[in-house]
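hey so i finally got around to running the thing on that chain from the lab meeting. sorry it took forever, my laptop kept dying and i had to restart like 3 times. anyway pasting the input first so we r on the same page abt which one it is
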Amino acid sequence: MNAGFDPGIEQARARADSVSAPRPGPLRLPSGHEIRVGTAGWTDATLTAAGVFYPVDATTPEARLRYYASRFALVEVDAGFYALPTPQMAGRWIERTSDGFTFDLKAHALMTGHPTAPSRLPAELRARLAPEQAAARSLAARDVAHDVIDEVWNRFADAARTLDQAGRLGAILLQYPPWFAPTRHNLDRVLDAAPRLDGLPVSVEFRHAGWYAPRVIDRLLLHLRNAAVPLVIVDGPQGLPKSVPPLLEVTAPSLTVVRMHGHRADQWARRGATVLDKYRYLYSRDELGAWVPRVLDVAERSAHTHVVFNNCYANYGTTNALEFGEMLVRVVYGTAPS
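ok and heres what got predicted. didnt touch it at all, straight out
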């Protein structure tokens, strides 16, 4: 990838360069509540390409994470969705970042009913699959034996617990697929997630619009509030049959999560659209500005608020996260960060 020939990357770089010195720590409001801003991942190939975001000498995973953490107070680890993290891996993340830096973890695909690539499962788990399953390119969660699914949950919890014990875990994001419909059985699965993870903090995001139907959403909010589980506030494409509204509801006093997906309505539901197709969206400053009062509103109702830019193409997410952080500081303190 040659960043120099992509006008979108050049535009994003110029906008990032105009941001005042970043505030890597959380933004503390007069109420004492905190806001952290970051992106979904720090290792995407379009982000690590030369000249896009990282300095020329940040060529190793350690150097990249250290640099990223010097710019932001939060990262959402999306890699765990594809391959299980380990306690050793979590330990390295802790070593490479300073106290106060926070990790949100996206749950593994099999934990939320998504298909997964068997080749990316640990060898011991792959050996417990039927031969034809182990050899498949993709494996549906419904076809995986319960004991294997249980072990995925256990191993994921082990890695998350390492972060939690160090005070570095934000929450485990349970992002359910578009076919995860609002049924009593599925609601029970959502509410059972935190106990299944030994009480580790979780947040939930739905991609099925049925969860937001008038009668359904009222019951859902009641159950989530009773369980103190954050319902992720989503900014994404609107006007589609499966669009999820940006519902500004706080369902847990400890944490609210806002995830910014961009507005690529032409790609969001297109069959065959890639991840890059869907999330290659650079928010305008006006679009970001509209979210400042919304985030400040929910932040007053929750001790911690995480704003995650998931428009992860090249430097789009990092630029928007830097810009949004600066906007918040200017509104809260009336000045740029010093």
